[in-house]
Design brief:
This protein has strands spanning 2-3, 7-8. The protein is largely without helices or strands and 234 residues long.
Length: 234
């Protein structure tokens, strides 16, 4: 296979330079691409299978509708287009997704521990059952996103836009929601113990059955919110 811009495609191996390449017709399933440069590459609709992308540079790459369930720890997806992509069960621990877009993408049961998801734009993205301990979603735009049964211990959502998001059954122990917009969000049966919600917008938010031990609600906007019995909004 040739590429009109770059000539013959180089072999798939760790550290290879595939930046800017059109890779839509290459078989990348299980490819050994650890530390590879895939920045700006065209990967639309590509099945990456369980490719080894640890430490790879995919910044600015186009992965719309791509599928990957492999090893992406410490990979750089900054500014990448992940709209409608599927990363179910993928290892994205310590990965960078800052400034990426992931509208309607699926990360179900993925490992996002310590991942940098700041400024992520992902309306209707599905993060159900992810493990995202210590992950950062600061200033992310995640309207109607799903975090059902997710592990979000110590996760940071400072100033994030989360209207209509669903956190039902999630573990948000000591998570940070400072200044976040959670209008119409749902935290049904979630463990929000010690979560920080200073100046958060929690209007019309549903906390039915949620654990709010140690949560100071006094400075949050709670108009129309449904709180569990015994919760003190003062």
């Amino acid at each position: 296979m040739t590429d009109e811009t770059h000539g013959s495609q180089p072999p798939l191996e760790p550290g290879v330079d595939l930046s800017g390449r059109d890779l839509r017709h290459r078989d990348l399933r299980n490819a050994p691409l650890e530390g590879a440069d895939l920045s700006g590459a065209d990967l639309r609709g590509v099945d990456l299978g369980e490719a080894d992308l640890r430490g790879a540079d995919l910044s600015g790459a186009d992965l719309r509708r791509a599928t990957c369930g492999g090893f992406c720890s410490e990979a750089d997806f900054a500014g990448a287009d992940l709209d409608e992509a599927t990363f179910d069960h993928a290892d994205l621990s310590d990965a960078t997704l800052a400034g990426a877009t992931c509208a309607r993408a699926s990360f179900r049961e993925a490992d996002l521990e310590r991942a940098d998801c700041s400024d992520l734009v992902g309306p209707e993205a599905d993060f159900s059952r992810v493990s995202a301990r210590d992950a950062v979603f600061a200033e992310a735009e995640l309207d109607d996103a799903r975090f059902v049964d997710a592990t979000l211990v110590y996760a940071g959502f400072g100033e994030a836009e989360l209207p209509g998001a669903t956190f039902d059954g999630a573990d948000l122990l000591a998570a940070t929601l400072l200044g976040a917009d959670c209008d119409r969000a749902s935290f049904v049966d979630a463990d929000c113990s010690e979560a920080m919600v200073h100046e958060a917008t929690l209007t019309h938010t549903d906390f039915a059955g949620a654990t709010l031990t140690g949560v100071e609600l006094a400075s949050a906007e709670l108009r129309g919110a449904s709180l569990p019995p015994g919760a003190d909004p003062r």
